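Good day; I would like, with your permission, to put a structural problem before you. The record follows directly beneath this note:
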Amino acid sequence: MAKKSKKQQQSGGTPATVALTAAGTDFTVHAYEHDPAHPSYGEEAAEAMGVSPERVFKTLVADVDGELTVAVVPVAGSLDLKALAAAVGGKRATMADPAAAERVTGYVRGGISPLGQRKKLRTVLDESAGTHPTICVSAGRRGLEVELTPGDLAALTDAVLAPVGRG
């Protein structure tokens, strides 16, 4: 795992780390060797960092009534689409087309970060994040995670906190 200074992150960072640095947010970068054969990006990250899967969150893009919406949920569980729709006042949610998610966020699948997206999407953070002092989310590419407080993540993404994860 690598820990980079903010100066290093500015010079070679991802849009996520650049956004964190610009906001003056405290965060730690964790890098690991990504294995393309691993069946789960999130579980791979948790294993590689030696962090509980309940503290590692995946970024999923869903379509809620025609509007792309980001859900940030623990890798140890799954997204409750009905709860996501309800959290943003919608009626129906489905998983977004992966190509559309990549195009709108500017990130590749497995490396989509809730931070530094090409187009800022409305975001829902699973309320379980608040039970941890820090959580990890993708830093914008496979094999790179950022660790920060749930409050900082919610503030930077204008996230709604709601029970959208299950399992």
